[in-house]
Design a protein that fits this description.
The structure holds 2 protein chains of 2 kinds. Chain A has one domain: SGNH hydrolase (Rossmann fold), CATH 3.40.50.1110. Chain A is built from 12 helices and 5 strands. Chain A is α/β, with parallel strands linked by helices. In chain A, α4 crosses α11. Chain A is globular. By secondary structure, chain B is mostly helical. Chain B has 3 domains: about 200 residues, no CATH class; about 180 residues, no CATH class; about 120 residues, no CATH class. In chain B, α3 packs across α6, α4 packs antiparallel against α5 and α9 packs across α14.
Chain lengths: ~325, ~525
């Protein structure tokens, strides 16, 4: 067979494959952002069904973010709307995806990035698989074949999920942490990979283009935080001219590592999150120009959600 | 990077193909060699030095043996007939000495890297038992990927040069490529120099048919590995890591599942390997030939990991059987035990060595040694009772008898694999005891089995895939080549089959959240 013919056949084969992939992706993509519909990371993806232009502060990051910040508490104390799009072991690629998806319906004024994700390893392979999942959701949701229904062929995507906690992970478990050398000072500087610096630049650019203020936040964690990381983040905040708040070094928060952690200092529990959220709420209301929407009828659902939240935390 | 990961078959392999295609034929072997070293380096980093050392040394040894052979041939021509035998003997001795030294060096390095920890630990246990107040230091080393495979290739190359079966290669590059070719470095097949070295070096241009067949074989391998082997991993890990929780029925079921997983993982990877080589016009020896149609354990080992079996046969079994002491033993045996059991005596000693080596080759643990000797025992039993069985009034060609033999062999294999997979020999024995003493089908019938990481859908897809592979195996057994059969169909049918296979892998593959892909099992050996 002649080379031209082989190339032509190859192109046609790949083109049909691409069309089939798109078709399959449509069928396999969850049609709603609920667990029942097969959506992953439901609490973070709840942002997709938030009322248009209601979120002022978006939090991105890994498990540290959703364990430490409770948007409902900030709402109650300051009338500021926020949402935590944190997911376990979130890569910066995922953070970027969350922000860009959020921007389709929301206009946040501030994006807070929990910094632990910046030190996570990333690889070319992870990049390719994440890209493939972005373009063709079948790679992420292929396992839905077990629950696929005829409606998946015809139903349009419509997000109706209702996440009262707005991405916060409520846990009242207590597992005390051993606090030795947690805040020990050092001149060492922990490295951030080039991949993560690249994605940080992408996030900054996206925020700049959408007139959003970007800030870095390190939430308290005896296991994940250290002074070498703090040193690198200080450098980074100066280089990029962005705000950096390191709650590990804020004494007013008074984290009690015997009571405020659910897993020996790795993550905070509800008691710890309350303290961190209280400080963050004050910080946001004092340092960022954010409105109190409590009396605004457009945000009435937040008041309803807060009543539900109260019941949840009392359980 | 592993063969069944997208980074290999979607990025690395196509990139090598691209460079290969746009390089002149004369230099294509360099593309393959550089790619092979990049592949090796990406996994074992600076341990590449071991591979380089092995390559340089076998190149040198080959040339040394070759120069001695030439020297001997010249001398033989010049002297009278009477002296020829003496000269040949002298040179034979020299060559044998060099070969023995080289083999000891290569196998010794493998032994030190792989078995030093195992050896040290066991010696210390023994010293403790004997109340000797001395403890050996226990060393453990970083092991370069594929050392168990390329060492056997190195030994076969040097031995073949020594035997005069092949000429020593002057070309270091060709030999280096033979030793390191990236598709086979991790899991074999174990190739002989005469099988692949020349075709690797030739740098044949791409042939449409070869590329097509190669890609098809890769897809078939991925189907086995990603849909079946990776899916079964959750269940197998759960049961083998915590077998005390489960009854004998579940453990027996897990042994069947593991045998299935091992076959799908290893043969699937070998499909990817052979398919990759086929793309570059290199025909690699087959490593599997429908092993679960074997009617005896000896037949099983002529169908499973074929290249390892033939290696042991050619480089351990035959040399030992033909060695002076064992020939004398055979003669003695013939005299006293007759023509069947007489040679069996010496053969059994050689066979024992083969199976001991086979066991320990797989890893530095007692469970692997037990695995080797387990198979040795069944082969020996088969040999011992063969004359008796032949006297029984059984219609041996009847399908029922053949079916019985196949099922019996499969059960023996599954039990062997239980010991092979068990976390230790003690665990293996305890698991086997549970099968014997605590066998019940309750957990399999009351739905407990669906609470162990795999649901009904998972089992259904495994069953369908196993059936598909079973029918393909029957076709192969009957000499039908599926790829050629498909290639005779029109383009609509062909492409429909291709898309069906690709989408089966994408949709039913056990990858992403909730699955832990099985590590390449044989790469660990």
């Amino acid at each position: 067979m002649k080379l031209n013919k082989i190339i032509l056949k190859g192109i046609i084969f790949v083109a049909i494959f691409g069309v089939l992939l798109m078709g399959f992706s449509y069928v396999f993509e969850p049609k709603n952002n609920t667990k029942e519909a097969g959506m992953r990371q439901v609490s973070a993806k709840g942002i997709l069904s938030e009322k248009e232009n209601t979120i002022d502060v978006l939090v991105i990051g890994d498990s540290e973010s959703y364990s430490s910040i409770s948007p409902m508490q900030i709402w109650n104390e300051h009338g500021i709307t926020s949402y935590v799009c944190g997911t376990p072991k979130q890569s910066l690629h995922d953070s970027y995806k969350f922000l860009s998806d959020c921007l389709k319906t929301q206009k946040p004024k501030v994006v807070i990035m929990e910094t632990n994700a910046l030190f996570r390893k990333y690889s070319l392979e992870k990049y390719f698989s994440a890209k493939a999942e972005d373009i063709f959701p079948i790679f992420e949701y292929h396992n839905r074949w077990k629950k696929l229904k005829l409606e998946d062929l015809t139903t349009q995507i419509h997000y109706t999920g209702d996440e009262t906690l707005k991405g916060f992970h409520l846990s009242k478990k207590v597992k005390p942490a051993q606090v030795k050398n947690y805040k020990k000072k050092t001149e060492e500087v922990k490295n951030i990979s080039k991949w993560n610096l690249y994605y940080l630049d992408c996030l900054l650019k996206l925020c700049q283009d959408n007139d959003i203020e970007f800030m870095l936040l390190s939430t308290p964690s005896t296991k994940n935080w250290n002074y070498a990381k703090h040193n690198r983040l200080e450098q980074l905040s100066q280089d990029k001219n962005i705000d950096f708040l390191d709650m590990n070094l804020v004494d007013q928060i008074h984290i009690d590592w015997n009571k405020d952690t659910r897993d020996k200092g790795d993550h905070l529990n509800y008691a710890g999150a309350q303290k961190v959220t209280e400080y963050l709420g004050q910080y946001l209301s004092q340092n960022k120009q954010l409105k109190n929407h409590k009396q605004d009828s457009y945000y009435a659902k937040w008041n309803d959600d807060y009543l539900k939240y109260q019941k949840m935390i009392k359980k | 990077m592993q063969y069944c990961e997208p980074i290999y078959f979607l990025i690395f392999l196509p990139l090598v193909m691209l460079f290969y295609h746009f390089t002149s034929q004369k230099h294509r072997w360099k593309v393959l060699l550089i790619s092979s070293y990049i592949f090796f380096f990406s996994i074992s980093h600076y341990l590449l030095i071991y591979l380089l050392l092995s390559t340089f040394s076998i190149h040198h040894i080959g040339l040394w043996l070759s120069s001695l052979q030439k020297e001997r041939d010249l001398l033989v021509k010049e002297v009278e007939r009477k002296q020829r035998k003496e000269i040949k003997k002298q040179y034979q001795k020299k060559q044998r000495f060099i070969l023995a030294g080289a083999v000891v060096l290569h196998v010794g390095l493998l032994a030190v890297l792989k078995y030093a920890g195992f050896f040290g630990t066991n010696v210390n246990v023994l010293l403790n038992m004997l109340h000797i107040p001395f403890q050996m230091p226990v060393y453990s080393f970083m092991i370069p990927i594929g050392i168990s495979f390329y060492t056997l290739q190195a030994v076969s190359y040097m031995t073949d040069v020594y035997r005069g079966a092949i000429l020593a290669d002057q070309n270091l590059g060709r030999l280096a490529l033979f030793m390191s070719f990236f598709p086979q470095i991790m899991e074999g097949p174990i190739c002989r120099y005469s099988q692949t070295a020349m075709s690797l070096y030739e740098g044949q241009p791409f042939n449409y048919q070869s590329v097509k067949f190669g890609v098809q074989r890769i897809a078939f391998g991925l189907m086995k590995k990603i849909i079946i082997a990776d899916r079964l991993n959750i269940l197998i890990k759960l049961i083998f890591d915590d077998y005390m929780k489960y009854d004998g029925g579940i453990i027996a079921f897990s042994a069947i599942c593991y045998t299935c997983q091992l076959y799908m993982e290893f043969s699937g990877t070998i499909d990817v390997v052979i398919g990759s080589a086929e793309i570059f016009g290199v025909q690699m020896p087959e490593n599997f030939r429908q092993p679960f149609f074997s009617k005896s354990i000896s037949e099983f080992w002529t169908r499973w990991h074929i290249t390892l079996g033939t290696w042991f046969k050619d480089y351990i079994y035959y040399p030992l059987s033909l060695s002076h002491p064992l020939r004398r033993l055979t003669a003695f045996g013939r005299k006293h035990l007759g023509n069947y059991y007489g040679p069996l005596l010496a053969g059994t000693i050689a066979l024992f060595c083969v199976w001991f080596c086979n066991g320990i080759w797989h890893g530095s643990a007692w469970s692997y040694i037990f695995f080797g000797l387990y198979h040795f025992s069944f082969i020996l039993l088969g040999n011992l009772f063969q004359p008796l069985i032949h006297k029984l009034p059984i219609h041996r060609e009847h399908w029922l008898y053949k079916g019985f033999q196949i099922i019996r062999t499969s059960i023996i294999v599954c039990i062997g694999e239980l010991f092979f997979r068990a976390n230790s020999l003690t665990d293996g024995i305890a698991m086997f005891k549970k099968i014997v003493n605590d066998f019940t089908l309750d957990s399999l019938t009351n739905g407990q089995i669906f609470q162990m990481g795999l649901d009904k859908h998972d089992f259904l897809i495994i069953a369908i895939m196993v059936l598909i592979i079973f029918f393909i195996s029957i076709a192969r057994e009957r000499g039908v080549h599926i790829r050629e059969y498909i290639s005779q169909k029109n383009i609509v049918v062909r492409w429909t089959i291709y898309y069906a296979v690709i989408f089966m892998i994408i949709v039913f593959g056990a990858y992403g959240v909730g699955y832990i892909p099985v590590d390449p099992i044989y790469a660990g050996f």
